[in-house]
Each structure stands twice: as structure tokens, then as C-alpha cells.
Amino acid sequence: MRAIILAGGKGRRLEPYTISFPKPLVPVGDMPILEIVIRQLKASGFTHVTLAVGHLAELLMAYFGDGSKWGITIDYSREEKPLGTVGPLKLIDDLPERFLVMNGDVLTTLKYDQLFQQHQRSNADLTIACYRANTKIDLGVIEFDGRLEVTGYREKPVLPYDVSMGVYVFNRSVLETFEADDYMDLPTIVNNLVSGQGTVKVYLSDHEWLDIGRPDDYGRAIQRFEELRHEFLPEEQPVPQEQSAEARGLVK
């Protein structure tokens, strides 16, 4: 399976961490967030990852190389000007019929192989992984009808909504709906498909998902990764304490 990781953004919301190096290299625990993603993709059966790079591309290329360190093939597609979230895909000329696309700063326990398989079964042109989020409104919410008569009152309600996790599965045919070198973002391509050019479906997930767009979010992501490390990286098996002691030469 093939995955394209969008790693060309400047990560301005996470400054000052991203002033001198790209956001996908921001560390979470003892490794960059993008290394966590690479390890997860490898564990899910992906064999080829293309990093769509731009800002500070050389640092990403120097760190990840050809992917042999992780037993996966990594290559690069470089955009010379901003092309949006979907536009850079048009620069890659060897895409398979179906491929996964994701942001390079996603921290989630989502099972990428299950998402991919669901897309294959659904016959959709595009599948969006979605997460159910909740926002507490710290105000009294008034409900009323067209005659301005109050029909309800909710004090500090919690409102649920479904958000994109920044992980998608595309059919290659979606890229035929716009021209090479065009700026194209995800909302535009989704709205174009929904308006009649194709089918878009969602993959609902209750897995852990964290947005690290702001410094406060970043701090929480570090905490959750340490708490749930073996859910984010299930291939890492905890070493029994006795074995660990023997390895350190503390037990004869």
C-alpha cells in the first residue's frame, strides 16, 4: 500500500517551535511526530511512503533518508510554490489506483489499514477519517422559532461535531478533476465531488486523535503519547522488569 504524507507546510500556529525546523520534526516523546507516523504506517502494512515537502525540505530528507532505517521505502516530491493540500499530489506521477493521504503532524491511534480497506469496500472516490469532538459552550443557549418564541434553554451545553482527522484515502481519478500546477485544497475538492462529480464517504473513528496546532495542544499531545505509548506504537512491546534488570547487568 502507498501513502502520501503532506509535510510541506510552515506550521505557523506552532511557533516558536517551528521557526527553525519543520513541524513534522517537532518531537513527541523521544522522536519526531512524523517518525511515529512512519512507524504506524509500516505496522499497518504500508510499504511505500512519499513525503510531499516544501518548507525546510532538506531537514526532512536528511532525517528520513530512503526509509531503510524503518524497513519502508521513502521518497520525496517537492513543490516549488504552495499548491494547497491536494495540489501537490498532482506532482507525483506513479500513484496507484488507491492511496492514503495524510498530514505530517497527525497524532492518532487510528488503524490506517482498516481505513484503507473500508475505502476499498465502499466504492467511494474519497474517504475522510472523522473524529467525534465535543465543545462546551460556557453560555446559556436559547432556542426559538420563527415567531421569536422560546422553545428551549440549555445552560452550558456540550455540542458534538465531526471533524476531519487529516487522514484520507483517494482514488487516483479524483486528481483528474483539476489541472497540474493548480492550487487545490481539500475543502474545494470535497465540495466539487459532493456537487456531482463523485462520491465522498466518511470513516468514523473513536481512536485517540490529537491536534497539535497550538502550543497548548502540543503539550497535551506529549502527555497523551507518554500515557498511551503502546497504543500509538503497539509494535513496541514493554520489556518485563526482570528481563530489563538482567539486560542492565543488575541481576546475575
TrEMBL record:
Gene Ontology biological process terms in this record: glycogen biosynthetic process
Ranges for domain Nucleotidyl transferase: 3-224
Keyword Chaperone: no
Pfam families according to UniProt: NTP_transferase
Keyword Ribosomal protein: no
UniProt keywords, alphabetically: Carbohydrate metabolism, Glycogen metabolism
InterPro entries associated with the record: ADP_Glu_pyroP_CS, Mannose-1P_guanyltransferase, NTP_transferase_dom, Nucleotide-diphossugar_trans
Gene3D superfamilies: Spore Coat Polysaccharide Biosynthesis Protein SpsA, Chain A
SUPFAM superfamilies to which the protein is assigned, alphabetical: Nucleotide-diphospho-sugar transferases (SSF53448)
Gene Ontology MF: a single term: glucose-1-phosphate adenylyltransferase activity
Protein's name according to its UniProt entry: NDP-sugar pyrophosphorylase family protein
Organism: Algisphaera agarilytica
